[in-house]
Write a structure and sequence with these properties.
3 strands; globular; Rhopdopsin 7-helix transmembrane proteins; 10 helices; 3-stranded mixed beta sheet; single chain
């Protein structure tokens, strides 16, 4: 099927979960409930941190940025997924697909870098506690946060520009429930060699380099914690890192499977399941992980409730 002129109306047929039509209402309810939970959870944790001056520290500053990214991530994907599930004509226009892909890839790129920055913050706090306030100053935190957002959106812009130059057929089939870079490239009707090279470069810097830096940070952190003699201090140090390690494992597991594995791998149903980890599961679980394992957040939440009631 030859690629049509880009000026002709182009549509993407989203297969999604169409292979299980009897489960469509169930999928709709699951996505809707998790989306609402993710929104409320991330808004709540951002509100708690903002209103409690005791939480105005670098760690919680980056946590607010993570919450904002999680809100953007779910909002970029889930409303469109819900619309596709409930509609008979499960299609997306070219502009809708490109817009979703651009925003979604920007959020994923930014979150990958942010998790590395958060690991560095924990490294400085545990391995160099006496110099923590000097190294992680207010200006440094603001600079790192700006770099996270800027680099994430720069990567997304480059990837989007390269994809827009491709030709697509008038009707394209995407066996997924959202437009991601790998699934959109598979639907292209022209050569995607340059795009694949750009994706590999992005995978290397955002995936492998960030993941390696995070692992190095936690190697030093764990080594330092194990040298602490006091059992109570050791437990407290581990508790401050356990939440972040859990979040990193969930996020990197899904992203690396989708973006870094060989392009020849074609396990479509597995792709959809893994994508839900970082599209809806991770944004929903992040506030729970950080709040339930953190006494400071719980106490701040109780204080906020008492003040409101």
């Amino acid at each position: 099927m030859e690629g049509n002129n880009q000026s002709m109306p182009i549509e993407f047929d989203m297969i999604g979960f169409s292979s299980h039509p009897e489960l469509q209402p169930l999928f709709f309810m699951i996505f809707l409930v998790i989306y609402i939970a993710a929104l409320l959870g991330n808004i709540a944790i951002s509100t708690i941190i903002t209103t409690d001056s005791r939480l105005h520290t670098p760690m919680y500053f980056f946590l607010i940025n993570l919450s904002i990214l999680d809100i953007c991530c779910t909002t970029a994907a889930v409303p469109q997924i819900l619309q596709i599930i409930q509609s008979r004509k499960k299609t997306m226009s070219y502009s809708e697909c490109i817009a979703q892909m651009c925003l979604f890839s920007a959020v994923l790129s930014s979150e990958t870098i942010l998790l590395t920055v958060m690991a560095y913050d924990r490294y400085v706090a545990i391995c160099h506690p006496l110099h923590y306030t000097t190294i992680m100053s207010r200006m440094t935190c603001i600079f790192l946060a700006l770099a996270v957002w800027l680099l994430g959106f720069m990567n997304s812009t480059v990837q989007t520009i390269l994809i827009v130059r491709l030709k697509f057929c008038q009707h394209n089939i995407i066996d997924h429930f959202l437009c991601e870079i790998p699934s959109v490239l598979k639907a292209a009707c022209s050569d995607t060699y340059i795009n694949n090279v750009a994706v590999i470069i992005a995978d290397f810097f955002l995936g492998m380099v960030c993941c390696t830096l995070t692992v190095i940070s936690y190697t030093y952190i764990i080594s330092t914690i194990l040298k602490i003699r006091s059992a109570e201090k050791k437990k407290k140090a581990f508790s401050t890192c356990a939440s972040h390690i859990t979040v990193v494992t969930l996020f990197y597991g899904g992203v690396i499977y989708t973006y870094v594995r060989p392009a020849s791998s074609n396990v479509l149903e597995a792709d959809k399941v893994i994508s839900t980890l970082y599209v809806i599961a991770s944004p929903m679980l992040n506030p729970i992980i950080y709040s339930l394992r953190n006494k400071e957040v719980i106490n701040a939440f109780k204080k906020l409730l008492e003040r409101k009631l």
